[in-house]
Amino acid sequence: MSDLAIELDGVGKAYRFFTLSEVNLTLPCGQIMGLVGPNGAGKSTLIRILMSFVRQDSGQVRVLGRAMPEEQAAAKWDIGYVSEEMRLYAYATLGWHMRFIASIYPGWDAPYAQTLLKRFNLRPQQQIKSLSHGERAKATLLLMLARRPRLLVLDEPTTGLDPVARHEMLTELMDVLRDERRAILFSSHNTQDVEQISDQITFIDRGRIIDSSDKETFIEHWRRLRLDVPDGVRLPVFPGVVDVAVNGRVATVTTNAQSPQLLSAYTRAGATVVEVQRMTLEEIFVANVMASRKERFP
Amino acid sequence: MSTSVLGRLILKDFYLAWPVIAGSMVLGFAMLGLALFGGGQVTFYVGSVSFICVLILLNVFLVSSTVAQEKKDRVILFVLSLPVSTTQYALTKLASSLLAFVIPFVMLGAAALLMIGLTAIPHGLIPLTVAVMMYVYLYFCIFLAVALAADSAVWNTVVIICGNVMLNFLIAWLLNRPAVGATAKGPVAVWSSEIIATLAVEFIGSVVALAAALLAILRKKDFV
Questions:
Q1: Which residues contact B44 (CB under 8 A, 6 or more apart)?
Q2: CA separation (Å) from A253 to A157, A239, A258, A263?
Q3: Which of A100, A167, B35, B200 lies 20 to 30 Å from A219 when distance is taken between CA atoms?
Q4: Parallel, antiparallel, or unpaired for β A4-14 and A200-205?
Q5: ipTM of the prediction
Q6: Chain B residues close to A92, C-beta within 8 Å
Q7: Spatial CA neighbour of A128 closest among A87, A85, A100
């Protein structure tokens, strides 16, 4: 059995006004990857290719060791998919949906489903059309989690949820993560949610993967430096510096290669390092996207 | 394992379409009763036209709710997340829609023909009735094929409009054929060459529409 839950090798898909280009990505079993990108970045397209809802024009996709889309039916036995866009049958009850899923999956965990019903304050007799957006999102999560899938693919599951519903959903996902064999791919444009549960983070923008690493590496390597630059001093260009904004004598440098050597190099160049700021994941995400765009469209 | 999943999907579609199927059967039998036992020419026309309308409504509601609406409402994402391939999903849609339509259609059609055969209604109407029923089946096959192959509300609407308009032309055209119009009120069913040709075109059209739908499903790359 493959140790990789997800393998994407040179995956591309072209639409009339959007192209997903040369995506290479791996997610080992037992890891949680946050896929972060602005609206229209290609997160959903990538996930739909993973799930074989749409077929890639080029490249190879393997999920849980199975080639997609050829072996999609077999792979989907072990995949739980939830999307913000996904809807259930409006005129059927939640209980009907639970029985329907249970009739398909022999591994349906009925006691766990009952626990989730109570935890999410849902009733099986409720018709789906009578549920609020938050309740509907929790209902789809319940239907997915009680199958006990090995890979969870979540496409913006927290979008549009109120803070309480979001908290409930993320708490349940954190609970799922105790099972170390499970892998999760979690897409969102909300970096807070991603930061909360992910081991690895992948940034995507305009159909390209622009960076992918573990969370700690991002947090440790990205810094914002405030420098005092006297008149006549020109700041040298160092590798890993993605942005320099100058306002009078104050220069703000954003780098993805923070090191004591970098600070020494600026000091040697004549600048004074006033402050070294840690960056939040959101700031790293924005800086990364802007740097990538500047590089591709100077 | 996968075969049982496909069976579950077909049963699920039946369960969800059941109100439409049951409603159309109740209405269809009621309209048939009105046409055949209403006692007057007006009730006969109202009943028979309403009977055809019920069959058309069954067609439109069934395809709209089980195929088109599922795509529009994004319930398709839920179904496609189950252990089936996208092609299997589309094939189960084709199968469940066909069954859900054909069962009430055949029952209502058989009842209509039986009633004409057993009552004083001129038996000359039987060929015309069969041709119109067969047209409704062709209309259903084309609508189902378009709904499965194209993700377009516009195309669905075009088929509905054309399907409804063409029915009027078909009836008018058939009644103006001397071999059909002249014998429609007669005591004996006359299977003229025009009726046979119409039935052949309708049958071949239905087969071609379903074959085209199958081909489109097998070639389709993107399902959402």
A1: B35, B36, B38, B121
A2: 35, 12, 11, 11
A3: A167
A4: unpaired
A5: 0.90
A6: 16
A7: A87
